[in-house]
Every structure is written in C-alpha cells, then in structure tokens.
Amino acid sequence: MSKRKSLPQIDDLINPSSQHSPSPPPFPPQTKPQENKQSSLQVVKKAEKPKKEQMTIYVDSEMSFRLEAAQLQLRRITGKKGYATSRSAIVELALQMALNDLEANGANSTLASLIVRK
C-alpha cells in the first residue's frame, strides 16, 4: 500500500504559520507561451455570436410550405451533420443574400426589381 502525501489542514491554509514550510502548489504555475514574432501563425479568438432579436413575419401558406420543404431538403443534403438547417437560419441567410445584393446593386438588385414589379 502506498503512502499518501499529507495535505495541509484547513487551519494551515487559512492561518499559515511560520513553523511549517510552505508546501508546493498542487498544480504547477501556468506560464504563458512565449510569442514567436517570426511565426506566420496567429491565434484568432473565436468570434462572439451577435445577439439575435426575435422577429415575427407573416407569409402565406404556400411560402410556409416551401420553407418547410427547403428545410427538409437541406437536412437531406447536409445529412444532419451540425449544419444550421432551421427555418430561422434559412430565412436569415436568404435575407442576408437579398440585402447584400440590394446594397451592392441598388435599383438593379433582384429584390428591387421584384418589388417594382408588384
């Protein structure tokens, strides 16, 4: 049977006395790795996800059906491997594409031409 190392008592931790030699910390101190300025690799912090706001939109039943069908089709395509296939994600990406087109092309954008036709 191996002997366990003796651990300090709670009183020794709260009120350390000069009689006892200081015990080494249970874990080695963490050291920061030295930065290699010549290295082309950089540590990139994981981008924080922006806070999302809830939004309610109304669509006709055909559009709702098409959105549901698109969600199922994307799930089949991606194989449910952690890809964002929620209806919310689909709508957000579609809006992002339409707004990017509008910002880049203005009156010649697909969104503007569809709005003008109505």
Q: What layout of secondary structure does this protein have?
A:
Layout lengths: L9 H5 L46 H18 L8 H19 L4 H8 L1
Explain this structure to me?
The chain is mainly α and 118 residues long. The chain has a domain at 61-117. Helix content is 42%, strand content 0%. The longest helix is centred in the last third of the chain and has 19 residues, at 87-105. The N and C termini lie far apart (86 Å).
Task: Briefly characterize the structure.
The protein has helices at 10-14, 61-78, 87-105, 110-117. It is mostly helical. It has a domain at 61-117.
**Terminus-to-terminus distance:** 86 Å
> What is the CA-atom radius of gyration, in angstroms?
30 Å
Low-pLDDT stretches = none
Q: State the helical fraction.
A: 40-55%
**Structural class, from secondary structure content?**
mainly alpha
Provide the residue-averaged pLDDT. 78
Strand tally is 0
% residues in beta strands: under 5%
Name the overall outline. elongated
The ordered H/E elements are: HHHH
Give a quick account of the main beta sheet: strands, pairing sense, barrel closure. none
Count of alpha and pi helical runs = 4
